[in-house]
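[agent] plan:
  1. take the single chain provided in the ticket
  2. run structure prediction with default settings
  3. attach structure tokens to the ticket
  4. add a short note for the reviewer (M.T.)
[agent] executing step 1
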Amino acid sequence: MTLTIAARAANLATLNTPLLVLLLPAGTDMPAGLKPLDKALGGTIGRSLRRGDFRGGRDETLHLGGGSRGPRRLLLVGYGSAPDRALALRRAATLAARQAHKSGVGTLSMYAGPVDSREAEAILVGAQLGCWEYLDLRTPPPETEQRAALGGATLIADNGKELADAVSAARALGAGYAVARRLAQMPGNVCTPDLLADTAREIGKRHTLKVTVLGRKEMEREKMGSFLCVAQGTAQDPKLVAMEYRRGPKTQQPIVLVGKGLCFDTGASRSNPRSAWSS
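[agent] step 2 finished; step 3 output follows
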């Protein structure tokens, strides 16, 4: 299931959401932007901070009940005092989305105070990472045990209208991560070299990329002996895939990313023997 993401401004005290996630740094000071919400909730956030029930350490969480109006539940998630706030926020948002996905809230809202485009993008990417699951080959639980998957995440920020590009970038990154993770989780008898090549062709078609796929004969002509030697361990024909994006600035130097799609255990690597998609 694809997570719908967005960014907008809203009044936290009256925000109608099943779950409001507050991403907070280390410390016990009440962020100014949370004071109206704290007042509407009878001071529960401030008391939790003053008592040390929540100190904002990395990966620290605290669940609080909501009020008669506004958010129905709150989840405080700490991101510590890391020097790179964007990366710390992404980690915290990942943790929050993972917990929300398990609890079956359906949708959530997140607040991290003032954020710039990079931080907003990081938060929304983290939300997508946190709720992702590989379900293709998993037997679903009994209907009585099923919970609603997390389907939507909204970043609440005063500059929400200015974050459209960040939301778009986060959406693209999340989709890329989803493709890579799905391929990485597939067993080798499903994620074959042919499937990797077909996936590259499909991506190339959608995004107008040049895709070149070399098979065994092409690699023999190129005298790729080491590659072909390893490929003797399976009846599946090996594939070498190149994807080219050529719409960057003419003055920009080429950027080359080299990855390995490991569809079976060669015995020569300590890496994960399951299929992998690297880029």
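[agent] step 4 note for reviewer: Residues 186-279 form one domain.
[agent] ticket updated
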